[in-house]
What does this fold into?
Amino acid sequence: MNQHANSYLGEEKIGKLILKFSIPCIMSLLVSALYNIVDQIFIGRGVGYLGNGATNVVFPITIISLAIALMLGDGAAAFLSLCQGKKDTESANKSVGNAVMLLAFFGILMAVIFGVFKAQILAAFGATENNYAYANEYFNFIVLGIPFYVFGNGINSIIRADGSPKFAMITTLVGCVINVILDPIAIFVLHMGMTGAAIATIIGQIVTAICGIVYLTRAKSFKLSIKSMAPSLEIISKFLPLGISSFLTQISIVVIMGVMNNVLVIYGAQSKYGADIPLTVVGIVMKVFQIVVSVCIGIAAGSQPIIGYNFGAAKYDRVKELFWTIVRAEVIVGVISLLLFEFFPLQITAIFGSEDGLYNEFAVKAFRIFLSMIILTCVQKSISVFLQALGKPVMAMTLSLLRDFILSVPLAIILPMTLGVEGALFSGPIADIVTMIAVVIMSAVMLKELNQKIAGDMEQGAALLKETA
It folds into this structure.
């Protein structure tokens, strides 16, 4: 263990650091998101769109699990980076040790809770009479992998903060490759349907978790011991709030999907599309949306060790440079995504299986309307993570709550009352526009604070020069 192992985070060029840390982080998050999407692609072609609808019903439990994993993992990772900047090795060790224990505990707890309340969960997330059997079959097996899924994703955040983003990427990539290989074998060769897809996913998750455990024995900037794993409310209370924004970012997807699924079933049944088409299509849109969110959060979350280290080391000019570099990157991601969603919605939908005219008609509407303000989404998500990395959980949490709870949920319920099933699609862009106002205000406050710190450092430097002259 070397407390100076990551000192280069305060010296290397910003652009080079972001590329080194963000690309593996993006890949890790994308691979994590792709687990369920890969299942959906093969199920769509092997079982049909009702099977796809079933995965949409079960999908929220994996997002809830990911939310818990990232709250603990990202929180501990952010605190670890701040400790590295301050050269506080003892607190770094304790934060990781406590996070490891909590990840193991909550992974098992979530699996038990999901198993006990399976019927209520399926009903809450919009299972229909047509897809219930498929959803039940998929749920029964996917829940067994939850402890491994939680542990693997949480540990990966800590691995990135320890200065090993490539290792974190490889662990998730290996798990996903295993899933991709086993999915078609289980579905098309062994004819195991939904059960086969779930088992393939679980095997990949187990491999990723094992890789994370192996890494813990060879970490660079922290060392696990019985002492570091002993529960410490003081340490937990410091790192847990830093992961709240990550938790809300993920859990919001669950809340929105739960509300949207029920709204789509109710108002879809009253439209020419029926209940199953809107439910399936919006599930696909939400998963594609999660891919974009994985990229934009990956840029910011990947940079989190750099941000935290430099802020902890009082290198505020570098923190400011990081902010603007990340914002520019997010705008580019948003523009590319918007062009794809507006001009190629049918081609994207076809990846998950081809259906009839009404299915395609609603798919085009869903992509073009719901994701029309994706540029603003990218910027908002990244700034929330940036604030979290600075140790400002309240500001980060406020942005996540505003877009994903205070605005999106009520809009998804209210708009369909007058606009029908299509009304639910307008909830996303309206929430993005309003939230962007808060993003601008909070960014201005944060930049003003950084400028004041930079000015203060310059004054201190000038004073020291006078004393030595």
Summary: The first helix runs from residue 14 to 46. The chain has one domain: 13-461. The mean pLDDT is 84. Residues 13-461 form one domain.
